[in-house]
């Protein structure tokens, strides 16, 4: 129990660091920031969850069930953002019973395949895991910014 709590806290600290670091980095002559989490969200989530995260993406009409309103995650958890649970849902390690069949893609698997492709298959499993964790943590950091105030 204690080790799991320490693990959750460590992941939370890393997430804050990633978000802070991403916000502090500047690139390009105009000083534009590159936000990895926002990039991941726009590339993989907007088709179902919409730009604002309210579950109003362009594919909504073709889905059997309306996507979750991501702006209400924190509110639906007594005001606390459930970082570890969101991580597990995105990674695919936790199926959400209320969702029925797994309609949301398992992004951990796709990110892992991307990691192998980016390293021409020459990386180690530990390096792939780090790559996947970093992308998911950045994505969660962005989803956190979408929370309703």
Explain the overall architecture.
By secondary structure, the chain is mainly alpha-helical. It has one domain. Helix content is 52%, strand content 0%. The protein is built from 6 helices and no strands. The chain has helices at 2-24, 36-44, 46-49, 83-91, 107-118, 125-145. Helix 1 crosses helix 6 (125-145) and helix 5 (107-118) packs across helix 6 (125-145). The longest helix is centred in the N-terminal third of the chain and has 23 residues, at 2-24. The mean pLDDT is 75.
Helix content percent band: 40-55%
Radius of gyration: 16 Å
Low-confidence stretches: none
With helices defined by DSSP (H or I, 4 residues minimum), what is the helix count?
Answer: 6
SSE class: mainly alpha
- When the domains are counted, the total is 1
Q: Please state the average pLDDT score.
A: 75
Count of extended strands: 0
SSE arrangement:
Elements: H1 2-24, H2 36-44, H3 46-49, H4 83-91, H5 107-118, H6 125-145
Helix pairs in contact: 1-6, 2-6, 5-6
Short description:
The protein has 149 residues and is mainly alpha-helical. It contains six helices and no strands. The longest helix has 23 residues, at 2-24.
């Amino acid at each position: 129990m204690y080790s799991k709590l320490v693990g959750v806290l460590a992941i939370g600290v890393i997430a804050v660091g990633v978000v802070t670091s991403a916000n502090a980095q500047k690139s390009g002559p105009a000083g534009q920031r590159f936000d990895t989490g926002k990039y991941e969200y726009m590339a993989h989530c907007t088709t179902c969850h919409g730009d604002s995260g309210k579950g109003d993406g362009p594919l909504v009409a073709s889905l059997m069930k309306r996507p979750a309103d991501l702006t209400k995650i924190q509110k639906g958890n007594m005001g606390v953002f459930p970082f570890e649970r969101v991580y597990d849902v995105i990674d695919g390690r936790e199926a959400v019973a209320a969702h029925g069949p797994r309609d949301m893609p398992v992004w951990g698997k796709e990110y892992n395949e991307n990691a192998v492709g980016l390293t021409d298959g020459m990386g180690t499993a530990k390096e792939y895991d780090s790559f996947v964790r970093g992308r998911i943590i950045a994505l969660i950091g962005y989803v956190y910014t979408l929370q309703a105030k």
